[in-house]
Amino acid sequence: MRAADDLIGDLNPQQAEAVQYRGQALLIGAGAGSGKTRVLTRRIAWILTQFGAWPSQILAITFTNKAAAEMRERLTGLIGPVAQRMWVSTFHSACVRILRRDGEQIGLKSGFSIYDTADCERLVKLIGADLNIDLKRYTPRSILARISDYKNNLQGWREQLNTYAADYKPGQKGYQLGRFGNVEELYAVVYAEYQHRLAMANAVDFDDLIVRTVELLRGCPMVAEYYRHKFRYILVDEYQDTNHAQYVLVRELAGVDAGERPQPDAVAAGRQGPAWITVVGDSDQSIYAFRGADIRNIQDFEQDFPNAKTIMLEQNYRSTQTILDAANAVIAHNEGRKPKKLWTALGKGEPIVGYAADNAQQEAAWIASEIARLHVEAGVAYSDVAIMYRANAQSRSLEEALIKAGLPYQLIGGTRFYERREVKDAIAYLQAIVNPADDVNMRRILNVPKRGLGARAESLVTMYADTHAATFFDGVLHVDELGAPTRTATQLRAFRDLMTALREFAVAHDGKPSEIVAEVLSKSGLLEELQRSDDPQDASRVENLSQLQSVAAEYEQKTPDPSLAGFLETTALVADSDQLPMQGEDSGSITLMTLHTAKGLEYPVVFLTGLEQGTFPHSRSMEDTSELAEERRLAYVGITRAQRRLYVTRAAVRAQWGQAAEMMPSQFLDEIPDELIDWKRREAGMERMRGGWGNGGFGDDEFGGWDDDDFGGVSYGGAGSTFGSTYGSARGTGSSYGSGSSSAARSGYGSGRS
Ligand code: ATP
Ligand code: MG
């Protein structure tokens, strides 16, 4: 345990005040790099050591799993191993924990599945087919985006139905869409049906984790009371990126609206009434509006929480004055914000370096050569360098250049281990074992590996399930009543027996997920099918499956009370940012990532690339003031990641949709005062006609990245690299990052709406 002086001795007066503040609601609002996260961590240690709170009374929320792990590690350093027992997690992980414990109260059986985006899209496709929806026109993706909006704003499906399709009953057959002649009806019906089927499958999507927890707390006073009694201190980092549902969740957990209650096990502070809330954030760094983040949560904090105290931090400890000046100048172009003064004691430092390339390949090649130069001439370690871009698709030329130059790098967010077909198949088995009601996953594995149970067999089972209002697996269990042809019936029985045997095995070995994975891989025939194949790609698929088993073993080792369901949770909540090395760990490689993923991080050397109208700011944001403002905040986030050296680069030509498009310099470049930038090359080769921005962007997929296949010659997961994304080093860094990612997006984020 640290003494008080240790916790605040090296802080500035505002930081120290924030750490020690006693009161119900505290907002630490401050610009980038001013020590917000550091103060939050110290405050937790302070609450434990100086207010005398128990670790179990604290709930700390971070934006990513990785940030949570890091905070926990710091806390362990400050206060010792008790920190291991604290709830330090993302909103989503915390909600999973709550729902696992008490979800039964709202009809969620333990072992519920968490659907990732691909699962959700399958579900919407099934619903769309049943309702005769034109899914080319209303893509599953766009429908899901709408559903997500409803959820982020806590708009339930019942109210949508009441307003737009009052005579629809979830589960109803033969409903004719379109009688109301508006698209709201379609969304309302699909939303209701989607929730209905999730409930039938004992499954939730990412947004549901929050929404259903709110529902639980609101609907079950006993449960709400339990958590309000338990958590006396709630602390939230990156508060500017919370959405409405998360805001309500915090209020509910804290019991802000529940009035005064005596607290039997009083701690020194906060013995009466709601839990003490500390939020930290920077409204200039709000970059998740597209996922429902509501900047007003932070702007209105003082109104929302009576007697709230606000502490501003003004000293930046991260960057040079030049970098700060650039960031401040850019963000000043946003309207309606409170100006902040940020200063640093680090001095002016190096000028920002600018480079205008003729095209994206040349831009990438120059960056590679510049990094090589910094490495040799200035002794800059590769792991001190980050290359950031607006959209995942931009990584391609950068990767090619780094490979050519033989520089080790690590791509964050490009490959999604858990989204690979074979890995998803294996997970689908595990999911179906834990939760046989999970129709989406059960259907997925019915004929994987191929066992002669095609579309006809599937529809026979589905028909049974529909007429008996039963699950898909119930249909399989009743194979003898399906009237299936002999061969099909035989195969269905074999599938039934397989799943039953696997389930029994899983129950008997629940604490050993790695053994269950091994059993599933061998008994299901998944592994065998791949091993028999001549397709060279299948060899790397086998490696991925063996990797999955290692991940399970690793989980087993570091989790006090391992279980198969627990393992599945960790795989469901993985995010891009989890691929990053922990602080203090040297990956030995250059980091490539999107600006969204870079939130909260810092690097001595940062390259901001693709500074072109249409690339960054993104083409779709250029006509809309509020979207442009969000892009500018993203630029502010990017600039402020840099500690010592910042590079800004652009290309005059960039391929879009297979065509070379001419790109104008980004307006953000103009917004950086000229004297701060030292242009190594100012005008790009191809002189363009003036007027009209380069059009187009990267389409809908900008956050999604590519499928592995898009990478043509470059293969992931090559020998030596542990699943994945570490290829790319002529020297073979062999580092083991890239635990893939899934659209855990919600918790880990970074991978956007994927
Ligand atoms: P962001 O807005 O990007 O999330 P932040 O406000 O959370 O940034 P931190 O990441 O906590 O800032 O701190 C930025 C850097 O400054 C870190 O390296 C941190 O260790 C350092 N730092 C913060 N406060 C101090 C201090 N009082 N003395 C020395 N270093 C500090
Ligand atoms: Mg921070």
From TrEMBL:
GO terms for cellular component: cytosol; DNA helicase complex. Residues 321-600 form the UvrD-like helicase C-terminal domain. The keyword ATP-binding applies. It comes from the Bacteria. ATP binds at A30, G31, A32, G33, S34, G35, K36, T37. One of its GO terms (molecular function) is ATP binding. Residues 9-320 form the UvrD-like helicase ATP-binding domain. Keywords: ATP-binding, DNA-binding, Helicase, Hydrolase, Isomerase, Nucleotide-binding. Its EC number is 5.6.2.4. The keyword ATP-binding applies. It is an enzyme of class 5 (isomerase). It catalyses: Couples ATP hydrolysis with the unwinding of duplex DNA by translocating in the 3'-5' direction; ATP + H2O = ADP + phosphate + H(+). GO terms for biological process: recombinational repair. Transmembrane segments: none annotated. Belongs to the helicase family. UvrD subfamily. This is DNA 3'-5' helicase. It comes from Bifidobacterium pullorum subsp. gallinarum. The chain holds residues 1 to 754 of 891 of the full protein.
